[in-house]
Amino acid sequence: MEWDDLRIFLAVARSESLSGAGRRLAIDASTVGRRIARLEAALGAKLFVKTPQGYALAPEGERLLPHAEAAEAALAGAREALSGPGDLTGQLRIGAPDGCANYLLPQICARLCQDHPGLEIQIVALPRVFNLSRREADMAIAVSQPQAGRLIVQRLTDYQLHLAGHDDYLNAHPPIRSREELRGHRMIGYIPDMIFDRELDYLTETGAEWAQLASNSVSVQMQAIRAGAGLGIVHDFAIPFCPGVRRLLSDQISLVRSFWLIRHADDRRSERMNRLADALGQGIRAEVARLQALLPEDAST
């Protein structure tokens, strides 16, 4: 059994398709299929079952999976031992909700790449929870603490959110001095049935029953607010990127949420992953503090 065959086996197990594994490995799907067939022949066992949804692990594949993952971790450990404690190198894929991915990670990752030229970073911005067991990402940032799974979970920092609107919208309407005066204003928020985490249910904090303009992306919501389309709850750290957007009723409507860094439990023994996690955590804490310090004055009421 060759490691390269196990590497392909892991890619298919995690992507549940030959084409998805091919994209991960930069080889064509037909080659992936031939290599899996070769591995199955060498082992005398069927590793995958083809279903309408893709390639699912057969019982023999389930038994092979932890051994393949252990081989992967051992190889990574050998690389670390030989490369020593110098620059961080290799690929790092970070999964994050789009607010964090759009407004925080670009600056943080730019500094990491500058400090470590051999590091390749991929930011995956998706409005959903990442599956680390399938290695959709090497580490993920989440807005709530997971309650299950073999994971390392670290609280990174708290951040604040407030009701906000653009000067164009606020200047075209009477002053808003209380929650009650929000009635009749167009609200911007999440599509209710696409809220993937209860921590994102911001709109109830305003007393509004629904959003007339909605998106599953917090960045789209912010751009709608910037366009003067209405009012919405926004991250304080996003406001400096949107000239003319100001907080209002900050003494009456104020939310605090947290970012959590989530890693696979097997990475605990990896010095490289521990260093990357520390650098990412320090970067996020510093960037949230820096951007929140740049907030413009609240809208006058």
Overview of the molecule:
A hairpin with a 2-residue loop joins strand 1 (48-51) and strand 2 (54-57). It is elongated and about 75 Å long. The protein is an alpha/beta fold. The strands form 2 sheets. Strands 3, 4, 5, 6, 7, 8, 9, 10 and 11 form a 9-stranded mixed β-sheet that branches. It starts with a helix and ends in a 9-residue tail after the last helix. The protein has helices spanning 3-15, 18-25, 29-43, 59-83, 98-103, 105-115, 167-171, 218-226, 271-292, and strands at residues 48-51, 54-57, 90-96, 119-125, 139-142, 151-166, 187-189, 213-214, 231-235, 245-247, 254-264.
Give the structure's gist in a few sentences:
The chain is built from nine helices and eleven strands. It is an alpha/beta fold and 301 residues long. The model has no long low-confidence stretch (mean pLDDT 87).
What is the fold's blueprint, element by element?
Layout: H1 3-15, H2 18-25, H3 29-43, E1 48-51, E2 54-57, H4 59-83, E3 90-96, H5 98-103, H6 105-115, E4 119-125, E5 139-142, E6 151-166, H7 167-171, E7 187-189, E8 213-214, H8 218-226, E9 231-235, E10 245-247, E11 254-264, H9 271-292
Parallel strand pairs: 3-4, 3-5, 7-8, 7-9
Antiparallel strand pairs: 1-2, 5-11, 6-9, 6-10, 6-11
Helix pairs in contact: 1-2, 1-3, 1-4, 2-3, 6-9
Helix vs. strand class: alpha/beta
Radius of gyration: 23 Å
- What would you call the shape? elongated
Question: What is the percent of helical residues?
Answer: 25-40%
